[in-house]
């Protein structure tokens, strides 16, 4: 990409929010970060949009003192959105009701009503997941809690599109965000899910625009309030994991499964046979930037890792010796140690360590890394698509993780991405599309499988034991 204008990416995660600046060759120049604060209520646990909006406006204004920003692209996680009114400049940031934190407990009466209205797996694109996950369930809760205020709302917007609306005043829907377990959009049939018409929500959901389309420039109200320049163009933006997936697609990669790692391990593949998808596991039907289906499988492996490694773990890397001992003696960590079933229905909260207990922090760390690799392979096996397996994200900081995954899937080419900020680079690829320029170079590194005696037999035993542990819990 050529020219002087810089590109900003707003990455709204569940825990932290980042504002990145990149040049037009994809080099990341600056990063500012702030916690994504939540309040316990009333009326429910909710995100502090006002504090976040002020941070964004002030930080963007400061960045513009150093970098001429031409485009801003918002991306966000897929488990929330905001019910908005007409005025995005009011004291509530345009929110008619507070934005629900998806980890907030959902009342049982809402859950019961929701289960009766949310349709089939195909309608939803996923199982009904934990707590207050799913935009449709959040909408139902808001509608029941305050029907008068709800009736005055203009739009419901996914996270990235909410921030685009706040910045520009333009409301749109976007495929990857609506297709990220919102339960509002049937990805396969390309229409709204039944609950939308049952509850009369169709008028709240704006028309779709591509993730790379231009919403407009920053509103004059925000320019005056924060001292922002007049020429920042905001794009529609996208779902964060889908943005990461898009950078591989934009580079021309085909026939692959991507596994992104962090709090969640999320596997995605366009080659998955959705007709034979196992709906009882943690599987999803996502949408790519063009609205086409992408198979997904996920597990809360980051939480599993923390529970297994224990409080004495302080970032130490797993060592080969303790790992070999763990495999040899048959010590296994069976899911789930989190409140999510993942790939083993019924396992949530029933995690246990079987076999000889790990005696040292080094052994617990080795066990945690081994379980993370096993869960990764389980997700990839669930999808079943792609001749190559690509790993990226937080777990790559652990040197033994990728070699273990490669050893557990010896017939598949395993590679890792050297790019540590894939969501941001994927968002930048949306700007290259707007400008008609080439996407950024994709740098992948082949992974050499770890040599662990008895690993194949151990993995088979672990899978059987994990299935049995989950079935007992059901």
Rg estimate, integer Å: 22 Å
Question: How would you classify the quaternary structure?
Answer: single chain
Number of domains: 2
Q: Which fold name fills CATH's third level, the topology of the largest domain?
A: Nucleotidyltransferase, domain 5
Principal-axis shape equals globular
CATH C-level class of the largest domain? Alpha Beta
User: What amount of the residues lies in strands?
Assistant: 15-25%
Instruction: Based on the coordinates given, report the CATH architecture of the largest domain.
Output: 2-Layer Sandwich
Can you summarize the main beta sheet?
A: 7 strands, mixed
Rounded mean pLDDT is 94
Overview of this structure, please?
By secondary structure, the protein is α+β, with helices and mostly antiparallel strands. The protein has two domains: 231 residues, Nucleotidyltransferase, domain 5; 232 residues, ATPase, nucleotide binding domain (Nucleotidyltransferase, domain 5), CATH 3.30.420. It has 16 helices and 22 strands. The strands form six sheets. Strands 1, 2, 3, 6, 11, 12 and 13 form a seven-stranded mixed sheet that branches. The protein has a seven-stranded mixed sheet with strand order 16-17-15-14-20-21-22, with helices on both faces. Helix 10 crosses helix 15, helix 12 crosses helix 13 and helix 13 packs across helix 14. The N and C termini lie far apart (54 Å).
């Amino acid at each position: 990409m050529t020219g002087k204008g810089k590109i900003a990416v707003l990455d709204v995660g569940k825990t932290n929010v980042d504002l990145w600046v990149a040049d037009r060759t994809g080099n990341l120049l600056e990063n500012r970060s702030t916690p994504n604060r939540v309040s316990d209520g009333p009326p429910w646990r909710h995100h502090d949009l006002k504090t976040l909006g002020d941070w964004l406006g002030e930080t963007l204004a400061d960045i513009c003192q150093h970098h001429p920003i031409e485009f801003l692209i918002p991306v966000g996680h897929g488990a929330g959105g905001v019910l908005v009114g007409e005025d995005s400049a009011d004291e509530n940031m345009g929110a008619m009701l507070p934005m629900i934190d998806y980890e907030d407990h959902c009342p049982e009466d809402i859950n019961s009503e929701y289960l009766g209205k949310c349709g089939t797996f195909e309608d939803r694109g996923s199982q009904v997941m934990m707590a207050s996950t799913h935009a449709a369930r959040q909408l139902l809760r808001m509608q029941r809690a305050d029907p008068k205020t709800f009736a005055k709302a203009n739009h419901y917007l996914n996270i990235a599109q909410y921030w685009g609306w706040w910045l520009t005043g333009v409301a749109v829907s976007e495929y990857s965000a609506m297709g990220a377990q919102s339960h509002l959009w049937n990805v396969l049939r390309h229409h709204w899910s039944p609950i939308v018409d049952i509850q009369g929500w169709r008028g709240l959901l704006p028309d779709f625009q591509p993730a790379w389309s231009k919403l407009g420039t920053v509103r004059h109200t925000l320019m005056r309030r924060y001292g922002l320049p007049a020429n920042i163009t905001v794009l529609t933006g996208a779902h964060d994991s889908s943005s990461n997936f898009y950078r591989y697609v934009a580079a021309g990669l085909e026939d692959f499964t991507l596994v992104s790692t962090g709090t969640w391990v999320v596997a995605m593949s366009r080659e998955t046979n959705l007709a034979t998808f196992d709906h009882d596991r943690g599987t999803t039907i996502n949408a790519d930037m063009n609205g086409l289906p992408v198979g997904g499988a996920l597990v809360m492996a980051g939480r599993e890792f923390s529970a297994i490694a224990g409080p004495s773990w302080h970032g130490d890397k797993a060592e080969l010796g303790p790992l070999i001992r763990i495999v040899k003696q048959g010590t296994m960590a069976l899911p789930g140690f989190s409140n999510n079933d993942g790939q083993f229905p019924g396992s949530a909260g029933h995690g246990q360590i079987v076999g000889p207990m790990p005696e040292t922090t080094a052994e617990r760390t080795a066990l945690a890394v081994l379980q993370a690799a096993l869960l990764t392979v389980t997700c990839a096996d669930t999808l079943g698509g792609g001749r190559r397996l690509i790993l990226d994200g937080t777990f790559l900081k652990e040197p033994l993780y990728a070699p273990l995954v490669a050893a557990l899937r010896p017939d598949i080419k395993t590679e890792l991405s050297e790019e540590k900020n894939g969501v941001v680079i994927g968002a930048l690829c949306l700007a290259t599309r707007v400008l008609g320029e080439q996407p950024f170079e994709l740098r992948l590194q082949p992974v050499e499988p770890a040599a662990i005696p008895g690993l194949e037999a151990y993995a088979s035993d672990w899978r059987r034991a994990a299935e049995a542990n989950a079935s007992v819990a059901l």
